[in-house]
Amino acid sequence: MTLVKICGITRLEDAQLAVELGASALGFVFWPDSPRYIPPSRAADIIAALPPRIASVGVFVDQTRNFVWNAAEQAGLTALQLHGSESPSFAAALPRPVIKAVPVGEDFSLEAVMEIPKTITVLLDAHDPIRRGGTGVTIDWSVAASVAWRRPIFLSGGLNPGNIQEAIARVNPHAVDISSGVESAPGIKDPVKLRALFDAIAASEKDGVSNGR
């Protein structure tokens, strides 16, 4: 079963609908330059209203270790997602499980990805040094599949209700991470798109079982 993380949450009603539809994780962006930025204090209020089984993931971009630690404690995060140039040693010193975003661009290296410690979860996303996620741009799924065959990954980058079935079929990721593909505006999730996404994923899982995937 493919796990689903809905990222860029800024409103309680969006979080609750995503959970109701089947999300297993929600992402909160603590990078101030993002249009989906949310203060840790506000994220804490949303997280406190969610079932304990839901993973709450904080997204950071080259921020200090102290900031990450403090945000994790204040918001009540269960995992940390690093979207900058953070080193494995930086990740190893953090107080929660780590997801490391790896951009899939011209400089992508399979060897470098395989050198990332297995204790760190890899998330593959589109390369954009300015926006750092939520770009709406898809990545090369054949590259993603070559990684997913070797280690569990989170697949991100331009996923939406219209392409999620093909993405899952071609890549077979451990989890998918969706942000802009289910929005009406940055940080504002669209209920119609959210429902369509989970309907498509459910259909994909049903087809996968029937086809022996």
Topology:
Layout: E1 3-6, H1 12-21, E2 25-29, H2 40-48, E3 55-60, H3 65-75, E4 79-82, H4 88-92, E5 98-104, H5 110-114, E6 121-126, H6 141-148, E7 153-155, H7 164-171, E8 175-178, E9 183-185, E10 188-189, H8 191-210
Parallel strand pairs: 1-2, 1-8, 2-3, 3-4, 4-5, 5-6, 6-7, 7-8
Antiparallel strand pairs: 9-10
Helix pairs in contact: 1-8, 2-3, 7-8
Describe, in short, the structure shown.
This protein has 213 residues and is of the alpha/beta class. It has eight helices and ten strands.
Tell me how many strands there are. 10
The sequence of SSEs as H and E is EHEHEHEHEHEHEHEEEH
Number of domains: 1
Tally of contiguous helical segments: 8
User: What is the percent of helical residues?
Assistant: 25-40%
What separation lies between the terminal Cα atoms?
A: 10 Å
Largest sheet report: 8 strands, parallel, barrel
Roughly what fraction of the amino acids lie in strands? 15-25%
Low-confidence stretches: none
Q: What structural category arises from helix and sheet content?
A: alpha/beta
Tertiary shape = globular
Q: Class in CATH? A: Alpha Beta
> Which radius of gyration do the C-alpha atoms yield?
16 Å
Task: Please state the second-level CATH architecture.
Answer: Alpha-Beta Barrel
What spatial order of strands do you see in the largest sheet?
A: 1-2-3-4-5-6-7-8
Question: Which assembly state applies to the chains in this document?
Answer: single chain
The CATH homologous superfamily is called Aldolase class I
**CATH T-level topology:** TIM Barrel
User: Average pLDDT across residues?
Assistant: 93
